Amino acid sequence: MKVSFIITTYNNQDFIEKCLESVFNQDYDEFDVTLVDDCSSDRTTQIVKKSFPKVKIIVKKKQSGPSKSRNIGIKQTNSDLIVFMDSDVVLKKDWLKKMVSFQKKYNPDIVGGKLLYYSEKNIINSAGGRINWLGFAYDIGRGKPANKHNKIKQVDFLCSAAILVKRDLFSEIGKFDPGYFYGFEDADLCWRANKNGFNVMYNPFAIAYHDVSRTVKNMSDKVYFHGVKNRLDSLNKNSCLLRKVIAIPIHIILTLLSCLLGHCKPKIKGVLYFLNNVNKK
After folding, report:
1. pTM of the entire structure?
2. Which of 14, 33, 68, 222 could lock onto 64 through a cystine, CB 3.0 to 4.6 A?
């Protein structure tokens, strides 16, 4: 069964070779790779062109975040199964084989494996995720030893750093929300999938390593702004009326209280943006 990789990247020249080497070293042969570059200003695309000529490269004309990058990639592929992968991830050699085997056995619409930290390979980054009643998402197992969380399970969401998705899902629930520049786009997609009766599953036997610090160190006020507005928007569009009336005000209050921890201005802007646009979708 053929699989298409869609890898999103932005200014990742120092890690992109590690990422792609792990893809082309998979012990599974039927796949192609599309790299969608979000207007990198470094040598990311030049490195890929030179070292990985089989990769199809798409360079966007305007930076618009990973959601739009993934949606662009979907249009460039025709495989029934699509792997979405960030360029700060390295896959174990058997990752794809184990994901495809899992898909054949359990038939999930979205499946993700166990993510470990690249810098601390004995520590879990994510073993699936939960979304609480107030709309806050958290990674299961974060910070726990790598030998924990070894049970197959249904989850609320999966980190899109490395997931396998059935193409048919997008015709039913839509693609990644293009309005989500950064943050919560994976939780929102999985939330919509679960809400519409599709299967979102965690496969503990497929291991990948996530160089989270590479992303986190580049975080800015822009990221906090989008994170706040995206969480509120997803809570609003995926909840029943009662939940909206109760949860959204509490969510906003907790977000504003978190201003005491820093990044106050973008968080307030995110709340105000949501309130000013809540009825425009």
Report:
1. 0.94
2. 68
